[in-house]
Predict the structure.
Amino acid sequence: MKAKISVITGDLANSQQVDTASYIAHLDKLLSELQQAKRLQQYDIFRGDSFQIVSKPEQGLLLAVYIRIVLRASNTAHWDARLAIGLGTQQAKNTGYGSAFLNSGNSLDNMAKNCYLALKTDNEKINSIVSDLLPMLDHVIGRLSQSEAKIVQARMFTCTNKSVAAALQKATSTVSATLKRAAFDEMMRFITAINRITS
């Protein structure tokens, strides 16, 4: 059965090394902007440094990647988050949360210590394939420099490199070279491929 929603459950990485209040304020502003742009349906921040997002199923992985990139692009060192995307139903047949919430929460709880990105569906065969592929995307995001992350962030919801260059007051050639070095096109194709597998 086709997933009805995507749920992202996340928590702050390196929480001992950062100003949690500033992180939460930055995160709340980011998620509010994404909600106003109708890229996510709802969000909640809880337990100090944890949060949960509900979105359309095809938006979950893209949003998770975008959030990590925005955090890495911030002017504060060490900002990042562990994010687990759950695909499935919104409500259980009986009372309680649906499978998307359970898949997301369980995936975050079982995430390896050195991993920052996970995705789980109601289909175990799909989960096996995705769990083998996602570490590559996780690695690409994790190696982005702050300057690369800023340009990737600006490009993710913008149509052209020229628009990004104008917004950031940089040469188009600089934007293009940075995106190539950051493997932006490969990253976006990877997200599209995972969405095809999980849809």
